[in-house]
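Late entry, written up from scratch paper. The run itself happened at the end of the previous shift, but nothing got recorded in the book at the time, so transcribing now.
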Amino acid sequence: MGFAIPAPSVGSGVMALDTGNVPEEFRNHPDWKDPVPSVTDAATLGDGLRQARELSGRSLAELSVATRVHTRYLIALEQNDWSSLPSRVFSIGYVRAYAGALGLDEQLAVERFKRECPDPSVPLQPPVGVAFEEVRRYSPRVIGAAAMIAVAVLGWNVLQRVNLMRAPSPSDIVSIPESWTLGAVPGQAVGLTAPRAAPPDQTIPALYVTPGLEAQLTGVDPADAQAVAAAAAANAGPVQKAFNPRGAVYGASATASQVVIQARKAASLVVSMADGRVLFARQLSAGEAWRAPAGVTATIVASEPTAFDVYLNGEHGGGLPAAQTSLQQLNARAAVMARQMAASAEAARAAAAQATLSAIAPTAQAATPAPAPRASATSGPVPYNSVAQPVG
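Output as recorded:
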């Protein structure tokens, strides 16, 4: 059953809409329903949807069936709980369906949803419209102010530089006349004396010898001047220098050789055997050496004999005697020298042992106690008081 709405009044040829209150006869009609408020009048989109649902008198279950949207999503829309909604595309579809079911403007509802729940994936857009025009309007002033500040700072620096610049002037030292000459000291006469000796390279402290140790080891008492002089006379020979490699060493190993030939300066050395085989041939530089094998018969040919030193058992044995030298002769000299050194060392050990025994014998005799005298048969008995206990 419907009802009729009265026609609008017409006056002066102009149609006018009645925007006042609805007459009571329309409100009292059983089919009357209050008009649904616009979705833009509510504080939020959710408040507008909830108010429209309450005015419609329908429940969330009924609207869920009508919109085919789950109840929890309808509740989320009314409570503005955007985090509980699915993806943005589905959320917009739910807003559109819910607003259409409640008789609201679907487009206005969707636009308000987009404003209250912006899409975070959309990048920021540059300013347009009034804001951009404001920037364009004030940008020349800002640029001009910045340029004025830069010019002021530059001018101040240039002014400071100009103020600090001065014309070059001669130094004050130039105006002072020189009153001295080379080698003269003002106010003092200088005389040169003979040059002094160069200082020693190093200072070696005096060697400390344990008392009695030198006499025990060498068999020579340092306090006995005659024994010291005799030992010095026995060892008066010059101290030979030992072999010191200063470059490459060729030939046999150190344990299988008694003869070493070392070059003082660059020279050639050729060692060949009787059958023509060459054991060694090389131009040796200063410091390089060749170790000769023991028990080999060969001939040493040197381009300059004085350019080589011969070392026998590690000790200097002079130079090469000639341009051609027999290796067997040098090995024989090394063997004889080795036997002499062994005999000297054995004699020194025997002398030291004999000296030690001689020093120990008097001490042992002095430490031996004398035997006690025995009583003779004719002397008579020993008094008791003189042995067992004191008298008195």
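The chain has a mean pLDDT of 76.
(Scratch paper discarded after transcription.)
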